[in-house]
Structures are given as structure tokens and as C-alpha cells.
Amino acid sequence: MKDSLRQSMGWFHTWCGLLFGWVLFGILLTGSLAVFYTEINLWTTPELRSPVAIDRGRAVAMGRDYLTRIAPDARQWRIVIPTSREPVLRLVWTDEAGKATTHRLDPQTGVRIPRDMDAGFFFMRYHYTLGIDRKSSPIGFLIVGAAGLAMLAASISGVIIHKRIFRDFFIFRPWASRQRAWMDAHNLLSVLPLPFHMMMAYTGLVLIYYAYIPAGVATLNGGDVKAYQTAAAQSRYIDVETPAGSPQATVALMPLVARAERAWGGGAAVNIYVSHPDRANAAVEIWRQRDDRIANFPDRVDFAGADGRLLRVLVKRSPARETQAFLAGLHFIEWGGIAARWLYFLTGLASTAMVGAGLVLFTEKRARRGGSAFHAMAGRITIAAVAGNMIACAAYLHGEQLLPSGIEDRRSMAASIYFLAWLLSLIPAGARPWSSAWPEQLRAAALLCLTIPVSTALAGTPLTSTLAHGDGIRSGADLTALAMGVILWIAAGRIARRPAGGAAQ
């Protein structure tokens, strides 16, 4: 019975890992990069100076003055207070038709930043939608959910089929035969960070449970999922019972921020929403920053905009909502500071490498046995899924640095670079011999990573300058790109070595 179960789980692990691994590699790679989405946004914005001490009161006043001048008739303003991690004043206004517009200012000078600072958000969007707009189609969103479920199932089946799971904590033989080395790498990267693999897969599903398990939600809300989402989010728009049409200046915002922070007894405000600004029915919402605790649901205090009277304090939620917020916080990693983000980044890369090693291992084993046409095709797809994704990510970062800041639709152009680079990588993956395509593609990815600091320098923030000025974010990003390039170059040389039994073709 035990052998039968292990054999069944082995079959499931192999094919589930192969079919979903092609998608999971890109999801995990972009998710790892998205851990530093804010830092990537700053790194690719040379117009913004290095982080300095932020005067919050001055920044809020600057934002209000700007919105009063640019969008006096907006339905809602949003002021995102600059922080040490995100030292930019982000201003958003929504018109009566519901269209939102975003401007970003340098909080020191008040000068508008021409770039949309979207590089990090691109990786985040790809991580959970494969870059497909959810409003136009939910297919990417659903594929990612299926891949997350597959990763969770593959992790469980992998534990079942492991005969020596604790021994594999300590075994890695990189100079053994190529198949043995890939097996050791897959086992080591699977076993050592196993709790992280399972936690991230599960919490990723919990994040958007209503999309993956909609039946209960639809039943509770008469089949109207949007009604559930509105009720769960507790709509941000508050209508105070005063005449809507009469102009009346909204009170100063920073005193409300101070009152909100006193009500929380700790934590700092980061978002200010002003609905119906400078009207008698104005309402001000102060939202708490989420970096001082795991639960990813910010506390909030609401005030009447006309006179500053307290409307409500939102700090308590149902146990179910608190649990979901805690699990979401484990996934989003807004807490814990730079050390926690590096831990998530490195373990995320370990998850990515685990999937990549498993895909290569599948191809290696079948190639040595003289695989079928399907196995040959699977090897080609694996090259495109693994090396192609790395090439695309590096090419995208080059594009973000080098595309002129003032061009129209810059965001779409940068995204197009990613997908175009990936498509171009398919050509050598399909045309070149398998044993040649792997090292060639990995060397291409390595060269793109190694030359990222060149693009950064051309954009105006050379590594020598950022090191000299102590700009840890920009210099750290360049040095990380160099390190990744070196690792990929070494991997290319290693994978090019012919196995003892002959070369895989």
C-alpha cells in the first residue's frame, strides 16, 4: 500500500510539476522581484533624489495645495504621505465619472516626477495576473490561482515521495553527473525552505478566496459578488448628512492625522482620503501604515471635513477578517523591515530555482532514456519558461531605465519589451540543439543582468555615484543585478558540461 501510494504521488508530482511548473517559474520569479517593488520603483526613477528626512506636515500641505489647484472639483482626493521607503508624494484624484488620475511629486521640491514609477508594480501585476488586465479577462488571474493550488499539492506529494527527506537537508553534489546534481539541487531547494513554499502558496490562495471559492460568497449576497466585495471593503466613500452643494473649506489635515495616530495608540498614517473636498459634506479618512504589524488590514479613522468632528474609528474586525488579514500580511511582507524583505526575496528565489531545477530534471531523465517527441518539446518549453523569463525580466529593467520619461504610453511600451524579449527567446530555444540552447540562453540572461548597471548609469545614476552618496537602494539594486549575472554565467558553464552518459539533445 505504501509503495502504491508513493508511486501514485510520484506520478502526480512529476506531471503536476511539469505542466504547472512552466507557469509557476515566471510567477515565482516576478513575485520574488515584487518583494522590492517600492525599491525597484525608486531605482528606475533617476529624477527622484536619494531618500532624505521627510517633513510629513510640509508634504501633506504641498499635496493639498497641488490638488486644490489641479483638481478642485474632484469627487475624492488621495494623498499618500512620503515614507523613508517610498520618498515620493503620490497624489490621486477621482472625478465624478470615477476616472482616477495620479501625479507624483518630489516632496523636497514640489516638482512633478514625469515617470509613472511602475516598474515594481509590473512585476507585482504579473505575479498574480500574468500581465493580463483583470477587467478585460480573468483568465490570467484564474491560471495563477490554479498554479498556486498545484504548487501546494506538489509540495505535499513531494513530502510523501521523499524517502530520505531529512538527509536531503545536507546533500548537494554539484560535481556529480548532471542529472544527479539537478536532483540534489531540486531536493535541497524543496526541503530546506519547504515551510516557506507551502505558506506562500496557501496565503496566495487565501488573498483572493472569493474568486477561487465563489459559491458561498454568492449565496450570502444573493449571487452578487460585487455586493460582497463592497460590504467587505466597507466602502471608502462616506456621506455626511449635510447639504451637498454648499462650498465650505475642509479643515487642516495634519491635525486630523495626529488625532488618528493618538486613537491608534501607535503606528503612523500613510493615506489621507478626502471625499467631496472643500464641500459641506466633505469626509476625511486617515489610514494607518501597515509596516508595523503582520495583519494586512490598516486601521482607519474618519472625520467630518467641515468641522473635524470624529465620525468613527475602525480598528476591530471579525475574527474571520482578522485571520484573513494576518494570512494576507504573511504574503505581502509589508512588515519586518529590510531584513524580512531580503529573507522573502532569497527564499522566493529558492522557490523559483526549485521549480526550474525540477523542470530541467524532468528533461534530463527523459533525454538520457531517449525520450519521445513530447519530451523533446517539453525540453524546449522548459528553456523558454526558465531562461526566457529571466531574459524578459532583465530586458524589462533595461527598458525602464532607458525609455525616455516623457513619451506617451511609456508603461505599455515597457511591458511590451518584456513580452517581446520573451517571444524572441523562443526562437533559439526551438531552433538550437537542446544542449547548446541552455547555456546560450542562460548566458544571454547573464549578460543582460551584468549590463543593467550600464543602463542605470546612462539613465543618470551610475553605480560609482550611488555608492559614493550612500544610496543603498540604487547601489544595492545594481550590485544585486551584477551578482545575479555572475550566478547565471556560472550556471551556464555548469549546464554546458556534458553528462557522463552523453549529451542531451
Task: Quickly list its features.
505 residues; alpha+beta; seven-stranded antiparallel β-sheet; PepSY-ass_TM; 19 helices; single chain
Structure description:
The protein is α+β, with helices and mostly antiparallel strands and 505 residues long. It has a domain at 2-46 and 121-208 and 335-495. The chain is built from 19 helices and seven strands. It has a seven-stranded antiparallel beta sheet with strand order 3-2-1-4-5-6-7, with helices on one face. Strand 2 (89-94) and strand 3 (100-105) form a beta hairpin. Helix 7 crosses helix 12 and helix 14 runs parallel beside helix 17. The longest helix is centred in the N-terminal third of the chain and has 33 residues, at 2-34. The two termini are 38 Å apart. Residues 235-240 and 499-505 have low confidence and may be disordered. The chain crosses the membrane at residues 12-37, 139-161, 188-212, 342-362, 374-397, 412-430, 442-459, 479-496. This is PepSY domain-containing protein.
Brief digest:
The chain has 505 residues and is of the alpha+beta class. Helix content is 60%, strand content 8%.
Strand order of the largest sheet: 3-2-1-4-5-6-7
User: Which shape, going by the Cα principal axes?
Assistant: globular
Rg, alpha carbons: 25 Å
Q: Quick one: how many beta strands?
A: 7
**Alpha-carbon distance between the two ends:** 38 Å
Query: Please, how many helices?
Result: 19
Biggest β-sheet strands, sense, barrel: 7 strands, antiparallel
In percent terms, what proportion of residues is strand?
5-15%
Average of the residue pLDDT scores: 84
Helix content: 55-70%
Uncertain ranges = 235-240, 499-505
Strand and helix order:
HHHEEEHHHHHHHHEEEEHHHHHHHH
Q: In terms of structural class, how would the helical and strand content be classed?
A: alpha+beta
